[in-house]
């Protein structure tokens, strides 16, 4: 079992801690996809990412589990059909009905009914190169990113995916930097949170990329653009960096914790909530300029957070869904 404090990347770290690396191992043994199982207590599964799809909350994670909530996080149920048991690492919706999820085996799935049913658009069963991030501009153009600088683009809604090339990282000629979060900046540029304190930036919609070195030495696992235009990235050892100029200059923010941060969300009232390992949660009421830290008594690692309606916060841990709070 891996030590959760020494891994360099987020979803692979969280997955392997609880044995979710099995799909990648299975691929090497020549096994094929099987639909995710409907199980009792699915809300106790480890979920690695969550988003709002209109009024619905959608979470993805362990062994192809997709959870849906239509009551602001009070209750979750499983999706009706998911075509894989591969661990799912990220999810993105462009409207209440249409979304994409990515994960191990290079899986990319699509839904057109709000997450109830999913279809496979891509996999790569002969390679252990998981995808950790997905982002779509609209129903045609999207990006997916993952291990060793794997970066894919589609311009036909996911029917075909083409590999893009990132600048070669210093000292990483054979293996590129791992890529963990894709988000759009305040001025329309695209950003990817990556290893070794790096961000990748595209000013042409994702065709060409340049590397930004922030001065941080640790991996960034999450990024977000806030209402008002400020941008935050966060990750290993509790590091948080902030930009107020559209992403050109990044400055370290004192987070108040050394525990690694796994996800960030902004609520409708402007509050920012981040979660991380060791059961830490961070809250900011000043656009990410400073944070107040709290810690779960049992120190169960937090894996994801999503903003529900009316200021509700829904958190996910290694032990499943937490009850929503304000």
Task: Give a quick set of tags describing it.
4-stranded antiparallel β-sheet; 326 residues; 2 helices; mainly beta; Methylamine Dehydrogenase, Chain H; 27 strands
What does this entry show, briefly?
The chain is mainly beta. It has helices at residues 10-17, 22-28, and strands at residues 47-53, 56-61, 66-69, 77-78, 88-93, 99-103, 108-111, 119-122, 131-136, 142-146, 151-154, 162-163, 179-184, 190-194, 198-202, 210-213, 220-225, 231-235, 240-243, 251-253, 261-266, 272-276, 280-284, 292-295, 302-307, 313-317, 320-321.
Task: Give the full name of the CATH homologous superfamily.
Answer: YVTN repeat-like/Quinoprotein amine dehydrogenase
Global outline: globular
Number of helices: 2
How many strand segments?
27
Main sheet: which strands, in order across? 1-2-3-4
Q: Looking at CATH, which topology would you report? A: Methylamine Dehydrogenase, Chain H
Overall average pLDDT: 90
- Strand and helix order: HHEEEEEEEEEEEEEEEEEEEEEEEEEEE
- The CATH architecture comes to 7 Propeller
Cα separation of the termini: 35 Å
Low-confidence stretches: 1-13, 15-28
Broad CATH class:
Mainly Beta
Could you give the topology of this structure?
Blueprint: H1 10-17, H2 22-28, E1 47-53, E2 56-61, E3 66-69, E4 77-78, E5 88-93, E6 99-103, E7 108-111, E8 119-122, E9 131-136, E10 142-146, E11 151-154, E12 162-163, E13 179-184, E14 190-194, E15 198-202, E16 210-213, E17 220-225, E18 231-235, E19 240-243, E20 251-253, E21 261-266, E22 272-276, E23 280-284, E24 292-295, E25 302-307, E26 313-317, E27 320-321
Antiparallel strand pairs: 1-2, 2-3, 3-4, 5-6, 6-7, 7-8, 9-10, 10-11, 11-12, 13-14, 14-15, 15-16, 17-18, 18-19, 19-20, 21-22, 22-23, 23-24, 25-26, 26-27
């Amino acid at each position: 079992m891996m030590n959760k404090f020494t891994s360099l990347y987020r979803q692979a770290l969280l997955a392997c801690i609880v044995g979710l690396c099995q799909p990648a191992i299975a691929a090497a043994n020549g096994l094929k996809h099987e639909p995710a199982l409907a199980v009792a207590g699915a809300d106790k599964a480890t979920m690695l990412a969550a988003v709002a799809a209109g009024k619905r909350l959608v979470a993805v994670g362990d062994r192809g589990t997709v959870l849906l909530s239509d009551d602001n996080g009070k209750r979750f149920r499983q999706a009706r059909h998911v075509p894989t048991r591969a661990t799912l690492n990220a999810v993105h919706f462009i409207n209440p009905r249409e979304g994409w999820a990515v994960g191990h085996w290079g899986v990319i799935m699509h839904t057109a009914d709000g997450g109830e049913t999913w279809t496979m658009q891509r996999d790569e069963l002969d390679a252990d190169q998981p995808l950790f991030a997905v982002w779509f501009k609209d129903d045609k153009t999207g990006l997916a990113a993952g291990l060793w600088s794997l970066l894919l683009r589609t311009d036909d809604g996911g029917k075909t995916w083409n590999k893009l090339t990132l600048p070669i990282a210093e000292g990483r000629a054979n293996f590129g930097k791992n890529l963990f979060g894709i988000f759009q900046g305040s001025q329309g540029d695209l950003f990817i949170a990556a290893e070794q304190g790096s961000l990748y930036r595209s000013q042409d919609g994702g065709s060409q990329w340049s590397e930004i070195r922030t001065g941080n030495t640790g991996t960034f696992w999450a990024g977000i653009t806030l209402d008002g235009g400020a941008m935050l990235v966060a990750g290993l050892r509790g590091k948080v960096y902030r930009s107020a100029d559209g992403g050109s200059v990044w400055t370290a923010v004192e987070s108040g914790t050394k525990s690694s941060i796994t996800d960030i969300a902004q609520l409708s009232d402007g509050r920012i909530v981040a979660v991380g390992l060791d059961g830490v949660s961070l809250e900011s009421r000043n656009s990410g300029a400073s944070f107040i830290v709290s810690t779960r008594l049992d120190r169960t690692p937090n894996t994801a957070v999503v903003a529900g309606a009316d200021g509700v916060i829904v958190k996910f841990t290694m032990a499943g869904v937490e009850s929503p709070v304000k």
